[in-house]
Amino acid sequence: MNRPTKARNGRIATLISTGLLATALGGPALANPCAPRNPCAPRAANPCAAKNPCAAKNPCAAKNPCAAKNPCAAGAGIDPKDIVRPAGYTPYRGNRASLVAEGERLFKDASLSTNGMSCNTCHVGNNAYQATFAKPYPHKVAMATSDVGLNQIHLDEMVQLCMVKPMAAKPLPWKSKELGALVAYVEEVQKGFKPTAAANPCAAKNPCAAKNPCAAKNPCAAKNPCAAKNPCAAKAANPCAVKK
Ligand code: HEC
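^ thats the input. predicted complex w/ heme C below
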């Protein structure tokens, strides 16, 4: 890498400090950190899984042209009732500081999922958040539109969506302290979120992202200046990397 900008250095430092990059660049035993955690992977019917072992971590998944055929995407059995606030719902209230602290703990707790992931697995270092995350809730989130048909979503509903889909778990009880705590913690994270320094450090530099974020079918993949930073790209096990 020649003469990285200060901003870029900052993002790389974030990646390295989170251990994500370090893990990605680890030995063969860690060949593909995404594959075993991909909630779609075991589904033989998923035509995308074979081509993109990182699908679950792909923040562009909602725009993936394979999504229509992907059993984990639209119509994948996500019941809007699990996601949308129930009638008469009042958010959990409690001491703010202790809720934030509890939320931070839960965010890193893999026992909330059925697939070994925690929220932090995907969102460490603000990873996987799109620019929409910077806007006040409710707002439009691509995954909520593609998977549940919602034009906008509240933060507590977004937590439920990530519980149900990527975490492959049941939604949290609406009145629970757990939901209140995760919401409080994510609200704090959101305050420090800047869309340009987002989650996906490649997005801003990827000339194709807006048009075709689906790596396997991305005609610009070979020209993608972010490839080297993709924690999955350097993996022999990643068929997307081989095509580069
Ligand atoms: C397998 C990866 C994965 C896991 C695990 C995961 N998420 Fe997400 N999450 C995503 C992706 C991908 C998006 C981006 C969706 C979009 O913008 O279309 C997202 C988006 C979000 C957003 C922000 C959407 C916005 O733009 O406003 C929140 C908040 C969120 N997740 C919270 C959570 C919480 C809380 C957990 C744990 C209960 C969790 N996520 C677990 C992948 C994951």
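The pocket of heme C is lined by residues 56-57, 59, 61-62, 112, 117, 119, 121-123, 128-130, 132-133, 141-143, 155, 158-159, 162-163, 166-167, 182, 186 (CB under 6 Å).
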